[in-house]
Each structure stands twice: as structure tokens, then as C-alpha cells.
Write a structure and sequence with these properties.
Layout: E1 2-7, E2 24-31, E3 37-44, H1 62-71, E4 77-80, H2 85-93, E5 98-100, H3 105-124
Parallel strand pairs: 1-4, 4-5
Antiparallel strand pairs: 1-2, 2-3
Organism: Treponema saccharophilum DSM 2985
Domain Dinitrogenase iron-molybdenum cofactor biosynthesis: 12-112
Protein name: Dinitrogenase iron-molybdenum cofactor biosynthesis protein
Amino acid sequence: MAYKIAIGTSDKKSVNLHFGEIESVSVYEVNESDGSYSFLEERKITRDPEKEECESGCSCGSNFAVKVGEVVSDCTYFLVAKIGPKPHRLLQENKVNCLEAPFEIEEAVSKLNGYYISHKKRESHVF
């Protein structure tokens, strides 16, 4: 079985972008059984600074977090080098599993797939 992940990367070699630096995400498909992965597409995130303020008028980027969440909503995980607590919480509220993984993509995918498999096994146990 395969699943999709989105990665904040500027060079397609490493997870090297902080959430706030993202202008696009790279989407990969990961094969659960052997951990192999393949690039699917690049998705642009159009920034509109006038609309990035939240309802209260601050510039916390909460609307940007919601927009990114929409772009990666079909991905099981979203990997970034770093993310602050507020955008992380907003992504979680929108059912986006965002993880900090400041590694080479190959290492990040390997670690993530191990986590994915162990998490999936725990969910399948009936108590």
C-alpha cells in the first residue's frame, strides 16, 4: 500500500524549509512495504500577504497555515525543517500531520515509514 507525503524542500534533496519559508511543496508517494518513494508533483502555494492576517488582524500567518493545509490535505504527512506552535496547531486542527524532520529526504522518508508502520500496527490492535 502507498501513501502520499508533502515535503518543504528547496533542493529536492533535504527537508530544509521552515514552514514560514514555503512557497511550494514537493509531493511524494511512499511504498509502505519497502519504504521506496517517488516524486509525484510540485504544488505551488500562492501567498497573499493581505490575506495572511488572521481575523483579529495580527500577522501570525494563521490564514497561510489554513491555505497550506488545503494544499496538502490529501497527504498523510507533511514534513518541514521547523514549524512554530501556532501554525502546527492550526494544521492539526485541519487534520494535517505536520512533522519536523530536518534531514536528507531519503533519511526522513525512511524514519517516517518506520513510524507509519509502527503507528498503523498499534491502531489495528483491538483491546
